[in-house]
Amino acid sequence: xxxxxxxxxxxxxxxxxxxxxxxxxxxxxxxxxxxxxxxxxxxxxxxxxxxxxxxxxxxxxxxxxxxxxxxxxxxxxxxxxxxxxxxxxxxxxxxxxxxxxxxxxxxxxxxxxxxxxxxxxxxxxxxxxxxxxxxxxxxxxxxxxxxxxxxxxxxxxxxxxxxxxxxxxxxxxxxxxxxxxxxxxxxxxxxxxxxxxxxxxxxxxxxxxxxxxxxxxxxxxxxxxxxxxxxxxxxxxxxxxxxxxxxxxxxxxxxxxxxxxxxxxxxxxxxxxxxxxxxxxxxxxxxxxxxxxxxxxxxxxxxxxxxxxxxxxxxxxxxxxxxxxxxxxxxxxxxxxxxxxxxxxxxxxxxxxxxxxxxxxxxxxxxxxxxxxxxxxxxxxxxxxxxxxxxxxxxxxxxxxxxxxxxxxxxxxxxxxxxxxxxxxxxxxxxxxxxxxxxxxxxxxxxxxxxxxxxxxxxxxxxxxxxx
Length: 468
Ligand code: AMP
Ligand code: GLY
Description:
By secondary structure, the chain is α+β, with helices and mostly antiparallel strands. Helices cover 32% and strands 24% of the residues. Among the domains are: 2-91, Rossmann fold (3-Layer(aba) Sandwich), CATH 3.40.50; 121-186, Dna Ligase, domain 1 (2-Layer Sandwich); 331-412, Glycinamide Ribonucleotide Synthetase, Chain A, domain 4, CATH 3.90.600.10. The chain contains 15 helices and 24 strands. It has a five-stranded parallel sheet, sandwiched between helices. Bound molecules: adenosine monophosphate and glycine.
């Protein structure tokens, strides 16, 4: 089977690697020459991946059986629509359906229209006066979000990106004055997790839950980034995420897809729910219309059984074989090596010498992102997330330790978060949720009507015992 991969980042390298394990032939349309993708691809074209006409022309010339779109920008530009119009089965929602990610206003309104109680208190002020009134009305910490795509970087959270509510108000007003729409949301307290699923006409097929580390620096300091790393647990839950809460999140995804369908909007692709597990259960932070980056790398690394190309073709044509949705029962940790200063003022251009053979021999995979080849075993860092190292093991912290051990085979200047997947970090997150959910804890100020989790938080459904 021959598949077109659209996009040139680490997520797309991981996608292509999963296709290659299924012995598919891969061709790539991307703006950059990703060394990992170049190695796997039978052919590739340097093009703007948001340019539907050129992507379609390449797909046609290559005679592909199907296409899969990695990043959000081509989805927002309607590249999935262009491929489908050319009768190329495509994994990736239409531009219309991708509004679930590209417009946070659309997303919240869709949930409201279908009575899906997954949102925190949210307002969409249209004047500067309304911004002040909204914030005064919330009477607690809040978050300011531009409506459109921000690559994870335009969202300002009180207590992290600003401390004085007045600063948040100034930011919200500046977004309005630039002509954009803005959302003000109540700040959710809890632990975030990503629940991705394959979605097609006949169902929703969940992947393992993953936790992403969005902040640039260790200790969750610094600005929001696309994600510095992520982990998943061998039972596909997370140390702080009981089965009942994951099921509640998956149920919200099901109902969201049903809501889209009821409005005549079919969805064939990946739907990624970014949830906050709060004292009262999972609450939706945002939807994305694609694999997470890095979270997709965790999931795709675990996808080894079955035929990935066949699964993708099934999703693209509306009917997936559930027997092909199988993920191995292992824990994974992904850590991104990024240019110094990333998240603030990245310094691109540095060289990394990577002994890939030694890293693979240590049981860790190398996934290439924003880098270019610079001679044998050497890559040059761009200004974004450069190289992801993926470790797997039985326990999360062991997978993290494997990645840390592999770092000795990388020479050059980079930044990496050493705190991802450590026992200490995992224990802190479990304790955070325990405190939030303890009997007698200050009741959450959330005005949610989100259904409470079906099981008590520290019942048999939890997986804290997997911490060791
Ligand atoms: P988004 O682009 O909506 O995913 O927002 C980026 C990041 O901002 C999220 O991953 C969260 O860490 C944070 N965030 C967004 N909305 C909220 C919220 N209502 N409460 C707390 N944190 C939030
Ligand atoms: N890691 C967050 C995202 O892919 O949006």
